[in-house]
Structure formats: C-alpha cells, structure tokens
Amino acid sequence: MPMLQTAMKHFQEDIERAGELISISEKLENGTGKDDVLRSAWMFAVGACDAYFCDAYGDLIARTLRAKSYEGNVKLPDKLNNLKIPIVAAITPNINEGWRWRMAARDLIEKESVLSLDEIRGLFNQFCGDGKKIANKDTIENWINHKQSKFRLFGISKTDYRRLSGKDKELAKQNAAKHFESRYEIIFQRRNDCIHNCDRPKIALQSIRKTQVEKIIEDIDFLVFRCHEILLAEFPLYLEKRGFSSVTRNRVCVA
Questions:
Q1: pTM given for the model
Q2: Which residues contact 181 (CB under 8 A, 6 or more apart)?
Q3: Are 92 and 199 in contact (CB under 8 A)?
Q4: Which of 7, 65, 180, 185 is a Cys-bridge partner for 101, taking CB atoms 3.0 to 4.6 Å apart?
Q5: CB 97 within 8 A of CB 69
Q6: Are 82 and 88 in contact, with CB atoms under 8 Å apart?
Q7: Where does the pLDDT of residue 202 fall: very low under 50, low under 70, confident under 90, or very high at 90 and above?
Q8: Is pLDDT at 8 greater than 70 in this prediction?
Q9: 88-113 pLDDT, tens per residue?
C-alpha cells in the first residue's frame, strides 16, 4: 500500500466520526448532555490527529527499515540506528517483509502520544529537508497563503500578509508561527481537560459551543493535511539523500 495511505484513510474516517457527534448533539435539548456530546466530538477530533501522526511515524519508520534491509550498506542517522526493534519482528520466519517492519514500528510507537507541535516536529522533521520542516518559519508562509488558511490559525489573514514586504513580512512570519503554535496548544489542552478532569481544569465546568467544535475540527483537518502533503513530498527525497537507489525507493514508497 502506498506510503501514509492507511494513516490518512483512518484519519478521514475518525474526523468524520467527530463531525457525526456534532450532528447528534443538534438533536439533543440544551444542557450538560448536549455539551458532553460536543466535548466528545472535540476529543474524537484530537484523537484522530494523534492517531494520524502515530500511524504516519510508524509507516515512515517501517519503510526506512525495509529500505535498510534491502541495502544494508546505506548508513542511517544515529536517531534511527539506535531504535530498539523488538526481536520478534526480526526473527519471525515466513512473514511479508513489509509487515515485519510495520510490526516493529508499531511496537516503537505503542506508548507514544503526539499532542504538541514540538512532538510532531521531533518525530517528523528528520525526514524533511532544509526549508521544508513542519510548522516553522520557512513553511508557515505557504500555510498562511493556503486557500483553507484562517485568521484564527495565524493571527493574520492571507490578504494582509501579502501586502507586507521586507522586515515586516519576516516579523509577521515569526508571529504567525507563534500564533499557530498557541492555537494548537489550546486545542490539545482542552482535550486533556476533558479526559483528565471532565472539562473542569479549575472548579467551574468550561462552556462549549457547536461552532467552536466545528472550528476545532477544521483546524485539525488543516494541520494534518498540510503535514501529510509535506511528508508525501519529502520522504522519497529523504531516502534519496541517504543514498538508497531509485529501485529501493520505489519499492518501499509504493508498496
């Protein structure tokens, strides 16, 4: 199966489930029950995001390990060389090679939770070339200018950003990157508040609105799809830079 296809398929199914919970909430009378369904939608949406990045990391690690198994002379960076692979994945006979390395990668991420932009960058920027790192000052400009960009994500509209030049534009990029980070900190923290203290981070129950959750789903969709686009483009280049042949690159990226 082509790289990241399963991760994206599951994400789309799961984010749809979050949307369905919003539809269910509309049929309920106002009150705590209705609000709790909306909270569930928020948690589902963040869960879909978390699952995508865990699955995507496992996928890329598995494909890198497969490539190394085909071309053992190619050197991998220490970060990958030092991975602890479960011995069962290495010695189990008569299993498909792709499945072997997916098993190994799954065990590696079994206890991972990817619920901050720092964690996302820490896992995936190793696969991205200079100027293509996830959600940094270099890539944020393309995201600001994206057709699905929203002011709430960057603190600036694409129209206002395009009017800027020189130092003003550089400052705007820095501020947009910080604003973007803050937005997702809020999204992820609210999910934690719901799970760990029933949405009472202090004493009072936090309010929640349908439109608020709809925007959360849109923003998670934006983050996952923009990262997905970068990883699809960058991972084959990563393998090429490491020294893997075109035959191996095609073999591990497509199947």
A1: 0.90
A2: 117, 135
A3: no
A4: 65
A5: yes
A6: no
A7: confident
A8: yes
A9: 555 555 555 555 556 666 656 665 66
Ramachandran angles phi, psi of 70, nearest 5°: -85, -35
d(C-alpha 159, C-alpha 13), whole Å = 33
Q: Which residues of 56-89 are buried (b: 16+ CB within 10 A; e: fewer)?
A: bbbbbbbbbbbbbeeeeeeeeeeeeeeeebeeeb
Mention every residue, 6+ apart, whose C-beta is less than 8 A from residue 4. Answer: 56, 59, 60, 228, 231, 232
Question: How far is the C-alpha of 107 from the C-alpha of 234, rounded, in Å?
Answer: 24
Structure tokens at 216: 């959360």
Q: How would DSSP label each residue in 216-251?
A: HHHHHHHHHHHHHHHHHHHHHHHHHHHT--HHHHHH
Range name among 56-70, 95-109, 201-215 with the lowest pLDDT average: 95-109
Single out the residue of 199, 192, 188 nearest to residue 37, CA to CA.
Answer: 199
Structure tokens that stand for 22 in this block: 């919003």
The 8-class DSSP code of residue 161 comes to H
Q: Of 187, 170, 192, 189, which is closest to residue 222 (Cα–Cα)?
A: 187
Does residue 3 contact residue 60 with C-beta atoms inside 8 Å? yes
Which helix (H) or strand (E) is 95 found in, with range?
Answer: none
Tokens of 103: 């098993």
Q: Pinpoint the alpha helices (H) of 71-165.
A: 78-81, 87-91, 97-109, 117-124, 137-144, 151-154, 158-162
For the record, the structure tokens of 146 come out as 């994206």
Q: How far is CA 156 from CA 130, 163, 169, 186, 226, in A?
A: 25, 11, 11, 18, 18
